[in-house]
Amino acid sequence: MTIEQQDFYTQTILSLAALVGLTSFLMLGQGRLLRLIFVFAVQGLLLTLTTALAAYSLNNPHLYISAVLNLVLKVIFIPWMLRREVIQMNTHRDIEALNNNTMVMLGGASLMVFSYYVLHPIVQTTSPVMLNALALSLSVVLLGMLLMISHRQAVAHVVGFMSIENGLFFAAIVATKGMPMVVELGVAFDVLVAAVLFGIFFFHIRTSIDSLDVDLLNKLHEVDK
Amino acid sequence: MIAAYLVLLIPFIGILFFAVSGHRTDTGKLNVRFNAVCLAATIWLAINVLNQGTILSPGKAFLIDPFNVYLIVLTAFVGLTTAIFSSPYMAHEKELGKLTDQRLKLYYSMYQGFMLAMYLVLTTNNMGVMWVAMEGATLATVLLVSLYRTPESVEAAWKYFILCGVGIAQALFGTILLYYAAVQVGDVENSLLWSVLYANADKLNPEVLAIAFVFMLIGYGTKIGLVPLHNWLPDAHSEGPTPMSAVLSGLLLNDALYAVVRNKMLVDGASDSNMAGLLMMGFGLISFLVAAFFLHRQKDIKRLFSYSSIEHMGMMTFAFGIGGPLATFAALLHMTVHSLTKSAIFVTVGHAAQVAGTQSMDKIRGLIKTQPRVGWGLLIGTIAIAGFPPFGVFTSEFLVLLATMHSYPWLTLPLLMGVGVAFAGLFRNIQPMVYGDKPEGQVPVKANLWPVMIHLGLVLWLGLAIPDFLANWFSQATLLISGSTPL
């Protein structure tokens, strides 16, 4: 079955999935923190759209609540908090020199292929569309991890962390039409608390090493140097 | 069922109470009382379960069966004894000027927060809520790791936060896959309930479940401290306040393992392959061996014992991986004795560090001459944790070895070697600290060693003779997990 023969909902979900994946790659190669945060907010917005669309087409009102939660948390609150942090630290003009950018990008591409490979067994029980959606969300999770590995700024780590959450959220929406409400509320609560804690941590890290470059957090060793 | 609600309600009130009331001189004692009431509630709950068997709450939100109820009691017990220890310990830290009232308020409030998260992990019937509570436990403890606000502790807390956060995100992906497999066979509303999943396990798609289990093992495995996902553990244990190290080692690691075992039960129900068990055995054995060798290279006393925790968690994961009634029974027993011994050790270690004024093992000397109870406590605790008879750790390790010999004879060699290496690693460090002359000017500190004596006494008792009701309890749990009883 080609993509033209799918219904409107499936086609849109697939396009949105592709866009979410694209934003992950955009974040991966981004050296400027403010732009990184902007792309992250765009990813959050795409997720909100996906959720709202799912709520509308599946006639599932509780997904609207998830959409609103997602909008408030990941499109408004967290980007706002991170942006304020970056401007306060006066790092918004710095460009982080990303080592091995080409390698990181190639690594990201291979992670995506890997996600398809890992999840391929489920194609027996479901449509290829579901495989696409799940594999894409797994690759968003893995790309988030790669983002954390390749960037040095604590703010970028938080963006990576939250984009992992985005990937999980996307999987929950498209694969299972949203988790049960109590779980979804719990996860949203955890994300909120995590965001607040990150804010507190920025303050602590700044006062202890006068920078948000996590490479400077290197006091603890396995053995004495 | 009321008992189960009470167990959750008391720590919840505790969080609010300590957050609102602020730090007062008697806050430490109040914390003890909260935990004591909670322990009473858990015992009531345990008696209910013993009499009626598995209890499912009316809304199916909570499930109490023989497997989790014993962990609930253990959690409450270690929570109480650690609270007894923490009251004078934290007061002493405040006298040294390391802490302010504000931070002590945070400490006591989050102590209850951590307990709540632990009880929720254990009592919930919903796999999603279990994940939420597990993440909640990280969030509650992360600020406690950086309580002293030194650069090292901030670094340790950041590492803990990022590694555990990212790690446990994998477990959520696993949970989503599990849910995905479940909605294909059952009704959507209750699909994430463990009792429903377990009843329908044979209908779940084994391929999807296998993938889900890998993610769960990696996710919750980060919290268990399985090598190579263990990096956060020694840092968080060594830099946080000692009572936190005691509850992290004694409770958090157990509960993460509990989550993995619950998932293993589902995977085993869905397919005949032993994939889940083999994965757990592999990870467990590697963790056990790597941690045993790392014991030799430590300089910090709390890091030493956190590696010892990784070693023991590795052994439990390995034993649960073998499956079968004997190994499962041994793993359950090992969970209990390890929790009791390790939290007792951390209590003495906390006092030893206060006596010497440092955590560096090169500088801690002559503990027995300075404060005999602390010195002997540390020595006996180490003997117990190294697996000497007649302590309970010996019994459980011996049972694990027996089970291994029965199912995978060749693996007894690395196990025995690991036990030997770990023993040497512990003793080469402990011996100079407890014996020898005391440095000049070293004076005893005010210490409450009742928790240590009670814990070690219980471990000794479990080593000599497991009481009837407890053996019965363990075998009911074993029956649930492995399908048959060892007795």
UniProtKB/TrEMBL annotation, chain A:
This is Hydrogenase-4 component E. GO terms for cellular component: plasma membrane. It comes from Candidatus Methylobacter favarea. It is a multi-pass membrane protein. It is found in: Cell membrane. Its main location: membrane. Keywords: Cell membrane, Membrane, Transmembrane, Transmembrane helix. It comes from the Bacteria. InterPro entries: HyfE-like. The chain crosses the membrane at residues 12-29, 36-56, 62-82, 103-123, 129-147, 154-175, 181-203.
Automatic annotation (TrEMBL), chain B:
The keyword Membrane applies. It is found in: Cell membrane; Membrane. InterPro entries: ComplexI-like_HydComp, NADH_UbQ_OxRdtase, ND/Mrp_TM, Proton_antipo_N. GO terms for biological process: ATP synthesis coupled electron transport. Pfam families: Proton_antipo_M, Proton_antipo_N. One of its GO terms (cellular component) is plasma membrane. It is a multi-pass membrane protein. Coiled coil: none annotated. The chain crosses the membrane at residues 6-23, 30-47, 67-85, 106-122, 128-148, 160-182, 208-229, 273-295, 316-337, 374-395, 407-427, 448-466. Keywords: Cell membrane, Membrane, Oxidoreductase, Transmembrane, Transmembrane helix. Signal peptide: none annotated. Residues 61-96 form the NADH-Ubiquinone oxidoreductase (complex I) chain 5 N-terminal domain. Residues 125-415 form the NADH:quinone oxidoreductase/Mrp antiporter transmembrane domain. NCBIfam families: PRK06458.1-3, PRK06458.1-5. This is Hydrogenase-4 component F homolog. It comes from Candidatus Methylobacter favarea. The gene is hyfF.
